[in-house]
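Running this now, will post back.
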Amino acid sequence: MPEKLLEEAENAAEKRKAQLEKEAPLEPRGVWMREGMKAYLCGTLGQQFDAWQRRLSALSAADAYFSQQIGLEAIEKKMDALEEEVKATLLASESLSPRRSPGYGNMPLSFSGEIIAKLNATKILGVSLTASGLMVPSKSVTAICEIKREEENG
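Update: finished.
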């Protein structure tokens, strides 16, 4: 009996998440640039997604959770696509390291502001920082990738 109830609950949750995915205002946007041997990236889901997420959060904890998942999946997909755009411009002797974002590892959170400024992301995407260093819209990501060049053996 408990297994059946659990299965029904899981099915209902999957169905609700799928419904919300169809309703979500997903219009991911991004910008990137190469500067020397580094690529700078910024992606966002925008203010509409934030507003939608706030509405859901006020109505249902479950919907708030699902909207977080939907947003995380969508912004990661956009950042992956930006990385692919960068890779498409590399020379045959170059490769791209995995992206790293400010606030992880030894990269200070404050570096997001430098990336936003370098990419003109406030004007292009509407991405900015609060005084405490949080990005607005909330589902926004900045990142940097190192470009490595293979040394020719001769």
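Residues 102 and 125 are 18 Å apart (CA to CA). More later if anyone needs it.
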